[in-house]
Amino acid sequence: MLAFVQHSGNVNFQYAVGFDAESSFHVFCPENPKLNLVIVPDLEGERARDIFKGEVLTYSDIGYHRKRKEGVSNPLAESLFELFKSRDIDEVAIPEDFPAKLAFLLREKIPVRVEKSPFEKRRAVKNEREVELIRLSCLACVDSLRFLMRILSRKRKCEELRRLVELRLFSRGFLAEDTIIASGVKTCQPHWKGYGEVEGHIVADIFPKDRESGYFGDFTRTILLEDADEEIVNMLKACVEAKEKAERIVKPGVLAKDIHYTVCDVLESYGYSTLRNQKKRGEGFIHSTGHGVGLEVHEEPRIFENEDRIEKGMVFTIEPGLYYRDVGGVRVEDTLVVRKSGAEVLTPCEDYVTVKF
After folding, report:
1. Which H or E run includes 119?
2. How many other C-beta atoms can be found within 10 angstroms of the C-beta atom of residue 196?
3. Is the pLDDT of residue 281 over 90?
4. Which end of the chain is more exposed for a tag (fewer CB within 10 A), N or C?
């Protein structure tokens, strides 16, 4: 019998068992639902039994501590192998991020192959509880933008604004790292975090994680100041129209590539470059239209040139952007959930954001 074994410390483990703990394992068989167990350190046993719906075994239960005291050279690998043997497991599949040393040790005893975690695709479709948890993080994003607009000043540098936004999020139960508060010409780099003086316009890309649930939100707005470059304003107009048209076609059954190409169609109609018709390397619309949001800020589904079919319950971003070295970049991004009849935006906010000092 083939069993899939995943190690703790990643979101697929957390998603599958409902908690995370150091040095723990989840063993399950897709073809035999009765085989669904976690192995945890002894100190985590009680917590695991309170949360996990399947079988819980501790390190003592599988004989690890006894083997360690007996001087067995690789007590964990030996204990796992004996467990597999007792459950008629004769082959093991592991994900790509499984501990390498342990994988090599297991392979000495049992066939081991590397496979993509089956939970990658399962996580793409959210239940209503997950949607509501993501909604909370998304609303925190919008609140943070409102806060940024209130404290925005030319006397404050981008790094100070970022620190204040992240502190506000932390005080409200969210963890934000690498928040983008970027201004000026260097906004032509989509992931430039932003440093120095505020000038012309600001790209604010906010993607916090709820410290309790672990679910992310993701949201971007380009803030136009009173002296914003005219070309920046025009670029933002094209991106807003592209986002709105793409959001309108989202529904169960549509292909991811159709959403992406809708964005490309609009931006190209304004004369801007996309990856589809790239005129100058590294400029124009140079990334995908969106990505899934959940326990990771970037997960399935991918909204690009792929053939993935959109399903009800998927949560993902729509984020057209344009980037030109001579003038800078703009981006506008919503997170949405796919409903039966279309898309519900989880980041309710005006598309055009302006601030006058």
Report:
1. helix 119-122
2. 12
3. no
4. C
Between CA 89 and CA 97, with CA 93 as vertex, the angle to 5 degrees is 140
Cβ within 8 Å of residue 146, ≥6 positions away: none
Please name the residues in contact with 43: beta carbons below 8 A apart, sequence gap of 6 or more: none
- 233-250 pLDDT, tens per residue? 999 999 999 999 999 999
| Of residues 253, 254, 239, the one with CA closest to residue 287 | 239
**Integer distance in angstroms from the first to the last C-alpha of the chain?**
68
List pLDDT tens digits, range 172-182. Answer: 999 999 999 99
Q: Is 292 helix (H, G, I), strand (E, B) or coil?
A: strand
The pLDDT of residue 184: 95
pLDDT beyond 80 at 138:
yes
Amino acid of residue 347: T
What confidence score (pLDDT) does residue 203 get?
A: 98
Show the domains of the chain with their CATH numbers. 2-122 (3.40.350.10), 128-355 (3.90.230.10)
- Residues whose CB is less than 8 angstroms from the CB of residue 281 and which lie 6 or more positions away in sequence, other chains included: none
Altogether, the residues listed in the chain come to a count of 357
Q: Give the separation between CA 78 and CA 70, rounded to whole angstroms.
A: 12
With residue 323 as reference, give the H or E element that holds it.
strand 321-324
CA–CA gap between residue 150 and residue 267 (Å, rounded): 31
- Tell me the C-alpha distance between 233 and 201, whole Å: 9
13 Cβ contact list (under 8 Å, min separation 6): 6, 7, 20, 24, 26
Predicted TM-score (pTM) of the model is: 0.93
Look-up of token digits 């994680």: 209
